[in-house]
Specification:
Elements lengths: L4 H22 L7 H30 L4 H57 L4
Helix pairs in contact: 1-2, 1-3, 2-3
Length: about 130
């Protein structure tokens, strides 16, 4: 079977297309609730599974070819780039979760401080 540039690079183009679709889905505006965070984490996991499946398929294709090393290097590169993008998305998601948790903790502290201040003011007020 004669290999052309089109048949050699078809698996990589499909991998890149999958990566672009996943990145686009993950770049949607983030939700502030924990359910939204869980949904985004699940999307990242699905993206990671899709990249791994594509990598497995691409390396299997590479083993069928004469020039295995170059082919597997391209598959490795596509996998690394896709996983790096997912890691960046995951880090942003984790950063957002920590920021939200910090804001919630601060609001609890503020509410507690206000309650304590009200108690002090009630005690300091003269009795009628």
């Amino acid at each position: 079977m004669a290999y052309t540039k089109k048949t050699l690079f078809a698996p990589y183009l499909s991998a890149v297309a999958a990566i672009v679709l996943i990145a686009t889905a993950l770049a949607a505006p983030a939700r502030a609730n924990t359910e939204g965070l869980a949904t985004e984490r699940q999307a990242i996991q699905q993206g990671r599974a899709a990249i791994e499946a594509e990598y497995t398929r691409a390396t299997a294709d590479c083993r069928q070819r004469f020039a295995v090393t170059d082919c597997t290097q391209k598959a490795d590169r596509a996998r690394r780039e896709g996983l790096a993008d997912l890691r960046r998305q995951e880090q942003l998601l984790e950063q957002r979760r920590r920021r939200e948790a910090g804001a919630q903790a601060q609001s609890r502290i503020d509410a507690k401080r206000e309650a304590q201040q009200e108690k002090l003011e009630q005690r300091a007020a003269p009795a009628p």
